[in-house]
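Tip: read the tokens left to right.
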């Protein structure tokens, strides 16, 4: 079950990053990175990436991190894991009209990537183990 959670977490973070790279006019810094990586052809799907895929992948990452808390019970990892997708979703819907929302979106995507890399390099280990080992 834990491998499913890690798969969804990585899918959400990577998908949000690719969706942001595909939108060169919305996010010039990430768009230029995407073009440098040879992803310039994704510009024609910009509306789909930003309006559909970015929130969907952020929601997948958010739910995967919330589900992961029930397995490893590590508060810091959970808070950092849900902060990035929450920042992305808040930026996409209620906070889009503010000037500083772009920085919040960049920070959320960067945090999602950082937590995913942290999870790859140092997978979480369950902190709360049961003491009753089959005893009644």
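Filled-in amino acids:
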């Amino acid at each position: 079950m834990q491998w499913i959670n890690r798969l969804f977490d990585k899918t959400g973070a990577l998908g949000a990053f690719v969706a942001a790279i595909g939108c060169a006019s919305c996010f010039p810094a990430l768009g230029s990175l995407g073009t440098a990586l040879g992803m310039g052809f994704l510009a024609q799907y910009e509306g789909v990436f930003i309006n559909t895929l970015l929130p969907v992948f952020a929601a997948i990452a958010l739910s995967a991190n919330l589900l992961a808390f029930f397995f490893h019970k590590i508060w810091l990892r959970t808070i950092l894991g849900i902060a990035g997708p929450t920042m992305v979703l808040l930026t996409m819907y209620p906070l889009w009209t503010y000037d500083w929302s772009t920085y919040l979106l960049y920070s959320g995507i960067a945090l999602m990537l950082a937590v995913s890399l942290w999870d790859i390099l140092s997978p979480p280990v369950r902190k709360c183990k049961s003491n009753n080992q089959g005893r009644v």
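Residues 5 and 67 are 7 Å apart (CA to CA). The first helix runs from residue 2 to 21.
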